[in-house]
TrEMBL record:
UniProt keyword terms in alphabetical order: Electron transport, Respiratory chain, Transport
Full protein name: Cbb3-type cytochrome c oxidase subunit I
Source organism, top-level taxon: Bacteria
Organism of origin: Sulfuriroseicoccus oceanibius
GO terms, biological process: aerobic respiration
Length: 493
């Protein structure tokens, strides 16, 4: 009994030591992600507004739709997405491998390099010096700086994996390690074929769309799945329902994820099998998405009602539901009869928003609500503000995805069927643009509140009580569930 108590105390001390070692790099990435999220939303608002009123910001070229939309995309992908990914990966890799971080100043410096290079790239886009390549709009000279920063951060995340002393590899580690290696391979390949050794324009376009699909399905989605597979068992106190199912979903996602993206090129002067296989992969990828959803839902089991109380569980579970819905949306885009209408419209952006905001960012929020109290030594100030953040974020993302998908399909159909002049088609799409403005405004309200709460936590001004901040007061019928959870000890780090 005494040895067990001593072992538990040693593990608690080790976790505290790990949290202290990763504190500043992780907080840097989380606060940077918060800043970039606000920038993403503001740029999204501005770009959508120019669709309603092209001269809304005068004759300044920097504030026309093309440059605003490019800056918005870069801020969303490399600002919000990667900063959030870096924070989650660093903390989870060190926690799961039970190793404190050494020389934490190095990933801090790399994080600043990443954000400075990205900022320079976005200002270049505003100045008209961008490349014009989707998701790689910054000048090609910015790419090496981003790659160097990424490699340094990835090395600091991967080192504990190579030095861990546990024979077991947790499910989350599979997804994290795969994501760590996937991005540099995608980024290098895309830059070589597009910038360093450019070939025919159609080949560069195919590589570009392959890169976009790969980053979504081989980087962002695996990290979201890793966060869910760690956080949900950890908070609920229940082991993962099926390791075999998790392993099957992992390999299916890895094998199929690289084939997505090319279905947008249906009808392009490419071998017909390329968009056809991509569309088929987009449909088949529904299987691993469903596997992950079933596994996560079964893991919660009888404790599913804890989702009503835990911010971490609510965001993590919502991200997995969104993962399946995003896979459905992507599959619809791969159906030829639909793709020919929506392939070159805003409907494509609906998948990007669903994956980056609906899946990945929601999982990231769940991780932040779990991790930050352990780094800052205080609890979140208010359950009410978390509820506001959750519901406004969910509704705003739904509004954005629906208006982008339906509006894009409607506009593509109108173009295809030649319903009147181009101006008439654009003017008729105004209700969808207004809906997008509403969505971005709601998202700004929700996440301005979140960023304020995050800074309150960073400065150590959160609630001092020892128990976690719950979304609601626990109902007496659910109290036994929490009592049972409190008696259990998790063997996972």
């Amino acid at each position: 009994m005494s040895s067990s108590i001593a072992s538990d105390q040693d593990l608690t001390n080790l976790r505290a030591q790990i949290d202290r070692s990763v504190r500043w790099p992780v907080l840097l990435f989380f606060t940077s992600a918060g800043f970039w999220f606000l920038a993403t939303i503001i740029l999204g608002l501005m770009s959508t507004w120019t669709l309603l009123s092209p001269d809304a910001f005068g004759d300044c070229p920097a504030f026309k739709y093309g440059r605003l939309q490019s800056a918005h995309t870069l801020a969303m992908v490399y600002g919000l997405g990667f900063n959030l990914a870096f924070g989650v990966i660093l903390w989870m890799m060190h926690r799961l491998c039970r190793m404190p971080m050494k020389h934490s100043l190095v990933p801090n410096i790399a994080g600043h390099l990443w954000n400075i290079a990205l900022t320079i790239g976005i200002f270049c886009v505003f100045g008209g010096i961008g490349s014009g390549v989707e998701w790689l709009e910054f000048p090609k000279q910015v790419g090496p700086a981003l790659l160097v920063a990424y490699i340094v951060i990835a090395l600091w995340a991967f080192v504990p994996f190579t030095q861990r002393d546990q024979p077991q590899t947790f499910v989350s580690l599979w997804f994290l390690v795969a994501a760590l290696f996937a991005f540099p391979a995608l980024f290098l390949t895309a830059n070589v074929f597009i910038h360093m050794a450019p070939s025919a324009a159609v080949v560069s376009t195919a590589v570009n769309y392959w890169y976009i699909g790969g980053v979504q399905f081989l980087f962002f989605l695996p990290i979201a799945a890793a966060a869910a597979f760690y956080l949900i068992p950890k908070v609920s106190g229940r082991p993962i329902f099926s390791y075999s199912l998790a392993l099957a979903s992992f390999w299916a996602l890895i094998l199929l994820g690289g084939w997505t993206g090319l279905h947008r090129l249906l009808g392009a002067p490419l071998p017909a099998w390329m968009p056809a296989v991509s569309g088929a992969a987009g449909i088949v990828i529904l299987i691993p998405a469903l596997m992950i959803l079933v596994n996560v839902h079964a893991t919660l089991g009888a404790r599913f009602r804890m989702v009503n109380y835990s911010a971490t569980l609510r965001f993590a579970y919502a991200s997995i539901v969104a993962l399946f819905l995003a896979a459905v949306l992507n599959a619809l885009g791969g159906i030829p009869t639909l793709s020919k209408y929506a392939g070159l419209t805003q409907a494509v952006l609906s998948t990007h928003v669903a994956v980056l905001l609906g899946v990945f960012t929601m999982a990231g929020f769940g991780a932040i609500y779990f991790i930050v109290p352990r780094l800052c030594g205080c609890e979140w100030p208010s359950g009410r503000s978390i509820r506001f953040h959750f519901w406004f974020t969910v509704y705003s993302i739904l509004i954005l995805v629906v208006t982008l998908a339906v509006g894009g399909f409607w506009q593509g159909n109108a173009e295809f069927m030649l319903y009147g002049s181009w101006k008439k088609i654009v003017d008729a799409a105004e209700p969808f643009y207004i809906g997008q403005l509403i969505g971005w405004t709601m998202l700004l309200m929700a996440n301005f509140s979140f960023v304020l709460n995050l800074w309150v936590m960073v400065f150590g001004q959160g609630r001092r009580a020892g128990s976690p901040t719950l979304l609601h007061e626990v109902h007496e019928l659910d109290q036994p569930m929490f009592d049972d959870r409190a008696k259990e000890s998790s063997s996972q780090a």
